[in-house]
Amino acid sequence: MIVDSLKIFITVIQKHGFSKAAETLHLSQPAVSLQIQNLEQELGMKLIHRSAKQVEPTQAGQILYDRAIEILDLYEDAKQRIHLLQNKVTGSLKIGASYTIGEYILPGILAQFSFQYPQVDIDVMINNTEDVVHCVKSSEFDLGLVEGEVNSKDLAIEPFQKDEMVFISAPTHPLAFQTVVQMKDLHDLVWIFRENGSGTRAYNDRVIEQNQIRVKKSYVFSSSQGVKEAVAAGLGIGFLSKAVVERELEAGTLVRLKVREVPFLRDFSIILRKDPYLTKATQIFIQNITGKPIEMSKLKQEK
C-alpha cells in the first residue's frame, strides 16, 4: 500500500538513516531499503542522497517528503471520519515531552487516556524542551508538552498546568538546618544544574539572574535523576520541580529548603504547529488535559 511506503520514506528522512528508521518502524533494514527503491523506480527519480554518515533528501525527495506528510494527514482524516461513523476514536498520537513532564506527569495522564480510548496508538519521545520544540516544528510529533518558555511565531502555546519549583539539598547540608532560608544565603554555594536546552535549566538561570545570586561552582547533569542523586550525595544544592522530588522528600533523602514564602511557579504547556492537521485523537487528548476544546483560531498562521 502506498501509504505504508510513504510512512517509511518519511521516517527515513526524519531519522536521517535507514537503520534508525528500521528500528523505529520495527522492520528489517533491507525491507526499508526495498520500499525506498520501489518509490524511486515508480517516480523515476533518485529520492535520497546516501552517504556513510547519514542520508538526506534530493530535490525530488524533498518535494515528495512535503507532499507525503500532507497525503498521510488526509489519509488519517479519512480514517477518523470513517471511524466516527462507528463512534470510535482511533488512530495514532505522537507526543514529544520534556523530561520533567515525560517522566513524572505524562504517565498518569496517559494511563487515564488509554483507559478511555484503548484504540489510540500512542508513541512518546522524551527529550529536553529545545529538542521537543524542534521536532514539533518538523512535524515529527503531533504535539509537544514542555516546561520551558517557548517563543516561536510558528507554534501555538497553551498552558495546561502550574508547576512549583523547589530548592533542595542533602539532609546534612548546612542550609537544611535553617528554619527559613534567605536568598542571600544562596550566595557562593555549589549548584547542580540540568543541561542547556532544558526548560528546568532555563528557569534556574532566570531565578539566579533575577536575584543576582553568586554561584561558587556548578555541575551539570543531563537528567533530573542525575541532579537528585548528586544533591543527595552532598555535591551541592539544586532547584527542581516539586513533582520530581516528592518521593525523595517523603523518604528524607532530600530536604526542601524553605526559601521565602511566595512559591516559584512556571507553566507546563502544550505546543502545536500553526495550521496543523489535528486528528480526533489529538483533539480529545488536548481537551482531556486542558479541560476545554482546542481553540482552532489560535492555530491559524499569520499571513
UniProtKB/TrEMBL annotation:
Keyword match Transport: no
Domain HTH lysR-type: 1-58
Keyword Chaperone: no
Record keywords: DNA-binding, Transcription, Transcription regulation
InterPro entries, A to Z: LysR_HTH_N, LysR_subst-bd, WH-like_DNA-bd_sf, WH_DNA-bd_sf
Domain of life according to the entry: Bacteria
A molecular function GO annotation: DNA binding
SUPFAM superfamilies (UniProt xref): Periplasmic binding protein-like II, Winged helix' DNA-binding domain
Family named by the database record: Belongs to the LysR transcriptional regulatory family.
Protein name: DNA-binding transcriptional LysR family regulator
